[in-house]
Design a protein that fits this description.
The complex is a heterodimer of chains A (142) and B (283). Chain A has 142 residues and is an all-alpha fold. Helix content of chain A is 55%, strand content 3%. Chain B has two domains: 13-139, Hotdog Thioesterase (Thiol Ester Dehydrase, Chain A, Roll), CATH 3.10.129.10; 155-281, Thiol Ester Dehydrase, Chain A. Chain B has helices at residues 38-55, 128-139, 194-212, and strands at residues 13-18, 21-27, 60-62, 66-72, 81-91, 95-104, 107-121, 155-162, 166-172, 221-231, 240-250, 255-263, 266-277. In chain B, strands 1, 2, 3, 4, 5, 6, 7, 8, 9, 10, 11, 12 and 13 form a 13-stranded antiparallel sheet that branches. In chain B, a hairpin with a 2-residue loop joins strand 12 (255-263) and strand 13. The chains are: A mainly alpha (142), B alpha+beta (283).
């Protein structure tokens, strides 16, 4: 399914609330939550924080973010077998990720990239886009 | 005697389970010498865990994770029965999300709001078939009452102390030998319960509040609200944790603190707490 691109304007509209939710979840200052800071390396987030974040975003924005949705969206149209091979993201998978995670600078896509390390790339902007997609999907089914 | 399903189990009977709702009860044994208020939250969490484990055919179990808000209204005494309720908002092999309550004689004693327990494979913690058998017991005849005896007071050594403001302390988590609750929490992998860690932190926050607010009688000051609880990793028996309590805000009759616990410098738990007088204790 092709996806309508998410505009900077849409991201700017949700960012302040997403940033506050991230600051609350991680116990950091909202000023430290920049759109492109890596959540794991830059703000010390751990897997429990991602779980916390998804639930807080669901409550804060009144949307549903299904389990595994972020990674599923990141994979896009690629079947799992073409996205990764023995836990390593394939060249096709990497190309798809770069296209999907436009907020992540090219130099952060290290190779070989383990599939389990994909969340290391996520930034606050990644979660803005998650919220926008969830809002769109809620509107589409309304 | 085996302490499994005894030393740290706080549901005696499941009285109702349908849709996302589960109800049960727990009577605090009359012989109990120490039943920290945080164990009321443990009881509600365990009730929600029973629902989640049953729904996932005992292949997964939730472990302490997140609690957005816990509000305390009254304290249970030995011999009293807690009526427990939990509403499961979501349950899958990743996590269970729920809210719940404990009531005493029909009046709300404790509310848990927006809790999340990450799921881990049951096999790591206990024998799935034994847990299923315990669930059947709770659903039918109920477990024998009076199984819980007590938990030891936290072993704390103060390191830095600014009266009414700030505390740094070391918490010595007990060794497995001689600590019955580790045989129940959990039989295959002993883990220091997050609710006992919160009890230790809350006790220090009460101490700071007594120094800051001389007014109310010391016994009247209790945790009234704990928010943003996040347990990041497991704590094994015998660990020494570094506890941090910092005043955020002080009112005429209540104080709010930031709580943290570290293991080897790494934050393993964080929360915020409000200390004041319980509604039930106010004139």
């Amino acid at each position: 399914m092709s996806e309508q691109a998410i505009s900077q304007q849409e991201i700017d509209a949700v960012f302040p609330k997403v940033a506050q939710i991230i600051a609350d979840a991680l116990g950091c200052e909202v000023d430290d939550v920049k759109p492109k800071v890596p959540l794991i390396e830059g703000l010390d987030a751990e897997s429990i924080d991602f779980l916390d974040l998804v639930f807080r975003l669901e409550r804060g924005f009144g949307v549903k973010i299904p389990r595994g949705k972020i990674v599923e969206d990141a994979r896009g149209p690629l079947p799992e077998a073409e996205f990764e091979n023995k836990g390593i993201v394939t060249d096709a998978g990497l190309a798809r990720l770069k296209e999907f995670l436009t907020e992540v600078p090219a130099e952060r896509f290290k190779t070989p990239l383990k599939a389990a390390d994909v969340p290391r790339l996520f930034t606050p902007e990644t979660f803005c886009k998650v919220v926008i997609r969830a809002q769109r999907s809620a509107q589409a089914t309304a | 005697m085996s302490e499994r399903f005894r030393a740290f189990s706080f549901v005696d009977r499941i009285t109702h389970r349908a849709g996302g709702r589960i109800e049960g009860q727990y009577t605090v044994p009359v012989t109990t010498t120490r039943f920290p208020a945080s164990l009321m939250a443990e009881a509600v969490g365990q009730l929600a865990a029973w629902s989640a484990m049953a729904q996932l055919e005992f292949a997964w179990r939730p472990v302490a994770g997140l609690a957005a808000e816990t509000n305390y209204h009254r304290i249970v005494a030995p011999g009293q029965t807690l009526t427990l309720e939990a509403d499961i908002a979501r349950c899958d092999p990743e996590a269970v999300a729920y809210s719940g309550r404990a009531l005493i004689d029909g009046r709300c004693a404790l509310e848990l709001v927006d809790c999340v327990g990450p799921m881990l494979p049951m096999e790591e913690f206990d024998a799935p078939e034994a847990v299923r058998a315990d669930f059947d017991t709770l659903r039918t005849v109920g477990a024998a009452q009076g199984r819980f005896q007590s938990v030891p007071s936290p072993q704390i050594e103060l390191q830095e102390h600014t009266a009414g403001q700030r505390l740094r302390a070391a918490l010595q988590v007990p060794q497995r030998a001689g600590t019955p609750y580790f045989d129940d929490h959990f039989p295959r992998r002993p883990v220091f319960p997050g609710t006992l860690l919160l009890d230790a932190l809350a006790g220090l926050a009460v101490q700071l509040t007594r120094e800051a607010i001389p007014g109310p009688s010391p016994d009247a000051l209790m945790p009234t609200r704990i928010s943003n609880v996040k347990i990041r990793s497991f704590t094994a028996p015998g660990t020494t944790l570094e506890l941090e309590i910092d005043l955020i805000e002080l009112d005429r009759d209540r104080a709010r603190f930031k709580l943290g616990a570290r293991n080897d410098g790494k934050t393993i738990a964080s929360a915020r707490i409000e200390i004041g007088q319980l509604e039930s204790a106010q004139p």
